[in-house]
Structure formats: structure tokens, C-alpha cells
Design brief:
This protein is an alpha/beta fold and about 500 residues long. The chain is built from 16 helices and 27 strands. Among the domains are: about 5-10 and about 25-165, ANL, N-terminal domain (Rossmann fold, 3-Layer(aba) Sandwich); about 390-490, ANL, C-terminal domain (GMP Synthetase, Chain A, domain 3, 2-Layer Sandwich). The strands form 6 sheets. Strands 2-1-11-10-12-13-14-15-16 form a 9-stranded mixed β-sheet. The longest helix is centred in the middle third of the chain and has 15 residues, at about 165-180. It is globular. The relative contact order is 0.08.
């Protein structure tokens, strides 16, 4: 069964039920079904081919995505928030001959951008479809492949995560169970639908026969208006909540009738939870953890355990098994560091056109997440950073996340970020970027580090910054920290 089949189901069962809302516009399941069929019509000439999907983050995007599904082809969403060169890197890596886009995006990118494609299909706001070019080529794709999501597009080689219909539905069903999503629920989508988290929000609510209210974080007023429009479940990454909590009175009013605040895309810290509790004491907070390779989500912290276990990712979602393996792929005992692994029906098929990377990531049916972790005695999992983030200083391998946490917990600061820098003797040393709190003093931080850290971990410098070092998709990573450091140094 495909995701679009649920739209057909509810178009027959509850035809007037609203499926999508965006601004002043809305569309029922029956009308959504009709539009999908219109858009899919010219796609039926293709037999399980790759289609890039280039559309603004709204109802049009959902229609185009579902039309590709309906025609039994393969969707490769292009995140429009990425710069043009990043999209071109994705297209080069994905070897895409066909694209379906909106007239808005066709005008925005211009004819030259579309010259690389043999097939170009443009959909207007009134759902009329124009086939500008058609070049049907036979493609040898994994027979289970339905969706390819790219994990990055700015630096390095983009990786296309191959997902099947079963992956999408299994993850959607698990999220429905965890969040108790019903047909009466309206979910708020203010993050990009082109990435795994946003995509899973759409899937889970459509599978449940609910509705999705689509917006963005571009304008604070519109976000709070969206939240107050009858939304029952709000979804965001930690930076989403940080931004909204800057307006406590508006947050309190808008979230008064929201049932659940769900998060993913990074850890929710104690400060965020505390602020939400103070402003909306009846709001259920539900942090989740996942990866694109897992069709979005793998674990969650039950709402009743959030205050006690917010520093963990909690336990596996239904249908998923989590464990922590050592370097020999053997389970480790509680409180022993190893790599987090996962298995379940939501685990990716592999990476598009990259068998070597696929074999390294999926071993004996287990997804090796690349996250260092420990199992707690109660079975919950605590993350300790990325394997790739480990820094080698002399003969020592150092986890920067542990250093950051140690400094944050014992000093008057908001956030600390460890940056690996070159060292003439040890090869690598560290610098710190710090978001200060009231009363933060650089000399006090240096003194603390000299007293509580081994000599090779004492920072060479401490730089104060005023914002989080986020990547373009709103996450904090070793790469985004290094890029922010380079930007700060260049501006000094």
C-alpha cells in the first residue's frame, strides 16, 4: 500500500473532511484526490522512473509528491531552501532525467536550470498541467523504491536515502501510535516538508485521516496565528521552540489549546522544557529522535518521563529495536559506550547508486547510526555524540559533546561549542565558541578549564557568539560548528 492510497480511502469515507490547510486556503480529501489524479495523468507514461519534485513548501508540494506516488514512479524532493548549487549537486548525484515543478518555481529558477532534464512538467496553481518536454527512458531502479531523501547538499557528497512504501507506512503508523493521532487531530507543519521530519508529519496525519496545517517560520505573527487556529499537535526542531519562546505572552496564548508539542531534529534541553512548562503547564511535551535513514524517527521520551529523562532519547518507537554495539558488532552492557544501532520496517533500503556506502551503513539488517550511545539500566538510550565528531588530540580521542556538556553544567553560559583547530605539536587542539548568559566571563571560563580539564583539552581561545551555529536545515553538527567558527574568525 502507498501513502496516496490513504487519501483515496478517506476521499471515499469522509470526502468533505479537510486534509490540508495553508493560509486562507484549504482542501478536502475528495478534492485532493481529484487534483492528484489530474497531476498524475501524464506521469503514467513512465514506468518506475525518478522524478525530481521542485515545489514550494505548501499544498502544491504535497499534491506533486502524491502524484508521483500515484503514478508508481519515484519521488526525489528538492529542498527549495537550499541554494541553487546545492540542488544541482543533488541532481548530479541522483542522475535524474525527469522533473515536475510548479509554475512559481519554474519562473524562479529560469529555463536554463531545466535544460538538463529530458522531461519537464509544470503544474500551475489551478492544477492545470503542461508537459514542456517528454523523454521517456527505461530505468533500472530498486523495485521497492518510492522516495529518495537527501541528507545534505552543501558540502561533501550528497547521500540519497532510498525509502520504500513499507518504510513510509511503518514509520507513519509508529508515530500515530506514539502521538495518539486521530482523524480529529490537526498537525502544524512549519518546518520543511522536503526533509524526513516534515515528510513524516504529512504521512502520519494522512494515514490517520487527520489534517495538516501548513506554514513556515518566516514570520512570527503567522506562526502564532497558525498555532491558534485549532492545531492539536505542534511539531518543531529545538530551534523552533527557542524562537517561539522569545515571545512568552504570545506562546502562552497560542498554545493554550494545543495538546502535544513534539520535537525532533536535535535534543530538547532542560531550559526549553522548563520554559514550556511555565507557559503552558497542560501541554504534553514529547521529544523524539531519528535519522533520515530511518524514515524519520527511531525513539521517543514518553511524556510522563520527560522531566526525568530529557537528557536521553528514551526508548524505541513501536516496530523498532534499538541496541548499542561495540566495534565487533556485539551488544554492550548498560553504561558502556558503543554505537547506536536500529532495525525495523522503517530502515532504509540503502543509498541511491552507492552500494559501498549502503553496505557500510546496514550490516546484518542493523542500521549503524553513527551515534555514540550508552544504554541505561532501564533500557533508555543516552547519546554521546557522533562517531565522526571524535577529535584526535595527540594520542587521545576526544568526544567534543562531553566537553561541551561538562562546561555548560558547571558555568554560567547558555551554550558551548567545541571547535577542532590546528596545533603545531599535537596536530589538533580545541577552541570554544560560547553563547553567553548574563554574567558570563571569559577569564572565569579559562580558569575553569585549566582547573577541571586535562592540559590537552584547555582551549586555545574562547569566542563569544550570539546565535546557534545551525546548518541550512536547522541542525547543529560538527560541520556547522566549524563553518560558524570560520565565519567568526574571518569577520574579526
Amino acid at each position: 500500500m502507498r501513502i496516496d492510497a490513504y487519501i483515496t480511502k478517506y476521499a471515499r469515507k469522509t470526502p468533505q473532511k479537510l486534509a490540508l490547510e495553508e493560509g486562507k486556503n484549504s482542501i478536502s480529501y475528495s478534492c485532493l484526490e481529484k487534483d492528484i489524479n489530474i497531476i498524475a495523468s501524464p506521469l503514467f507514461d513512465f514506468k518506475h522512473c525518478r522524478f525530481a519534485v521542485l515545489a514550494e513548501s505548501g499544498m502544491q508540494y504535497v499534491k506533486l509528491l502524491m502524484a508521483v506516488y500515484r503514478s508508481e514512479n519515484i519521488a526525489i524532493p528538492l529542498p527549495i531552501e537550499f541554494p541553487k548549487f546545492s540542488l544541482e549537486r543533488i541532481l548530479d548525484a541522483a542522475h535524474v532525467n525527469n522533473i515536475i515543478t510548479t509554475d512559481t518555481q519554474y519562473s524562479r529558477f529560469g529555463e536554463n536550470f531545466f535544460e538538463r532534464f529530458g522531461t519537464v512538467i509544470v503544474v500551475s496553481s489551478d492544477t492545470s498541467v503542461k508537459v514542456l518536454r517528454e523523454e521517456i527512458e527505461a530505468e533500472a531502479n530498486n523495485p521497492k523504491l518510492r522516495l529518495v531523501l537527501y541528507t545534505s547538499g552543501t558540502t561533501g557528497t550528497p547521500k540519497g536515502v532510498m525509502l520504500s512504501d513499507r518504510n513510509l507506512i511503518a514509520n507513519g503508523e509508529s508515530i500515530i501510535e506514539v502521538l495518539d493521532i486521530a482523524s480529529e487531530d490537526k498537525g502544524a507543519l512549519v518546518i520543511s516538508p522536503h526533509h524526513a521530519f516534515g515528510n513524516s508529519i504529512i504521512d502520519s496525519h494522512l494515514i490517520a485521516g487527520g489534517s495538516v496545517r501548513i506554514g513556515s517560520m518566516n514570520f512570527i505573527d503567522s506562526v502564532f496565528n497558525l498555532v491558534g487556529s485549532g492545531v492539536s499537535i505542534f511539531y518543531g526542531v529545538p530551534s523552533t521552540y527557542r524562537m517561539l519562546l522569545k515571545y512568552p505572552d504570545r506562546f502562552k496564548k497560542a498554545f493554550a489549546n494545543v495538546r502535544t508539542a513534539a520535537s525532533a531534529g536535535g535534543g530538547m534541553d532542560k531550559a526549553i522544557v522548563k520554559e514550556i512548562r511555565e507557559l503552558a503547564p497542560g501541554l504534553e511535551i514529547l521529544p523524539m529522535y531519528g535519522q533520515t535513514e530511518a524514515t524519520a524517527r527511531l525513539a521517543y521520551v514518553p511524556a510522563e518521563e520527560v522531566d526525568k529523562f530529557i537528557d536521553t532519547i528514551g526508548k524505541a518507537i513501536p516496530g523498532v529495536t534499538l541496541d548499542v554495539f561495540d566495534s565487533e558488532f556485539r551488544p554492550v552492557e548498560p553504561n558502556t559506550t558503543g554505537e547506536l544501532v536500529a532495525r525495523g520496517d522503517n530502515i532504509l533500503l540503502g543509498y541511491l547508486d552507492d552500494e559501498i556506502a549502503s553496505q557500510k551503513r546496514i550490516i546484518d539488517g542493523w542500521l549503524h547510526t553513527g551515534d555514540l550511545a550508552q544504554k541505561l539500566p532501564n533500557g533508555y538510550i543516552r547519546l554521546l555524540g557522533r562517531k565522526d565528531d571524535l577529535i584526535k588530540i595527540g594520542d587521545h580521542r576526544v568526544n567534543p559533546r562531553e566537553i561541551e556538556r561538562h562546561i555548560e553544567e558547571n558555568n554560567n553560559v547558555s551554550n558551548v561549542f567545541v571547535v577542532p583547530v590546528s596545533h603545531e605539536l599535537m596536530g589538533t587542539a580545541i577552541s570554544l565558541m560560547v553563547i553567553p548568559a548574563e554574567g558570563t566571563e571569559i577569564e572565569s571560563l579559562f580558569a575553569f578549564c585549566r582547573k577541571s580539564l586535562p592540559g590537552y583539552l584547555c582551549p586555545r581561545e574562547i569566542l563569544l557568539i550570539d546565535h546557534l551555529p545551525l546548518s541550512e536545515n536547522g541542525k547543529i553538527s560538527n560541520r556547522s560548528i566549524i563553518e560558524e567558527y570560520q565565519h567568526v574568525k574571518a569577520s574579526v
